[in-house]
């Protein structure tokens, strides 16, 4: 996404800042002085605690997924490549959270320098877009694997998936680069407060700001959600035609993929659209509106990052084959220290049987 939420501030806070913009197209914030948001500190500190919780859970869950996928020779299900890259992307997203928390508890000030501002934003944006794109690719892959390529060789499908993963990372980088390029740190002349902001070309500030927000909505939600919803609905219909009762129960899991994505991301992008309408003056300016957008953007962004904690559960921990690989990885890792040699032998003996069972339930 972008830094829009993490640096969103109330109007009137920057009337004494020397903005690097002399054009009449600049967005002026000092024409109306609004009083501070009531209980603003309470809001920001509460969100900081929630972010720390997301950081801890996200680090643990995604680290486990990455470790197990690296340790395991096979995961037992087709989308291993996407799940590994999804966990890596989510892991890097949560790694940046402590930096945002430092800024958040200082009322969105940025005391860490311009380089840190750019690097943190780039890491955050690339991996957040990457996470969403990998979820989208997974939905397409799962349907095509069932409906059209069920008998295609695993080697060919793996080669295609690896190529798609490379393209996803390149796309996420390209989408994230423009906004990162225009990031700068600006310091208030009166109170020496420093902020990390995007300063777009003077002749088209408003156009750039609206374009970046639209990119966030279209590429970060509208297109991915449409693809995810359509292909998982197709997958659910394909699964329902099977006489296997195990596959019928998987429709609930498929439904949860769509619902969780919608719940986590729809509120944030609705608020971003409201902010676009405010910039375009489709919504009349008022301090109440600005205070609402300030609060709503912070809260909904926090909700959206919960997705980094939910992804490991929905796409990894819920699968029996993953839990089997997790158990096996721990057994092989710690057997020498804990004396679990017999369990190792048992897991080896049952591996062929388990693989056969998984094939019958796909």
TrEMBL record:
InterPro entries: ACKR3 (IPR001416), GPCR_Rhodpsn (IPR000276), GPCR_Rhodpsn_7TM (IPR017452), GPER1-like (IPR047143). One of its GO terms (cellular component) is external side of plasma membrane. Pfam families: 7tm_1. It is found in: Cell membrane. Residues 61-315 form the G-protein coupled receptors family 1 profile domain. It comes from the Eukaryota. Its main location: membrane. GO terms for molecular function: C-C chemokine binding; C-C chemokine receptor activity; C-X-C chemokine binding; C-X-C chemokine receptor activity; coreceptor activity; scavenger receptor activity. Keywords: Cell membrane, Disulfide bond, G-protein coupled receptor, Glycoprotein, Membrane, Receptor, Transducer, Transmembrane, Transmembrane helix. The chain crosses the membrane at residues 42-70, 82-102, 122-144, 164-183, 208-234, 254-280, 292-318. PANTHER family: CHEMOKINE (C-X-C MOTIF) RECEPTOR 7 (PTHR24226:SF5), G-PROTEIN COUPLED RECEPTOR 182 AND ESTROGEN RECEPTOR 1 (PTHR24226). Belongs to the G-protein coupled receptor 1 family. This is Atypical chemokine receptor 3. It comes from Sus scrofa. The lineage of its organism: Eukaryota, Metazoa, Chordata, Craniata, Vertebrata. The gene is ACKR3.
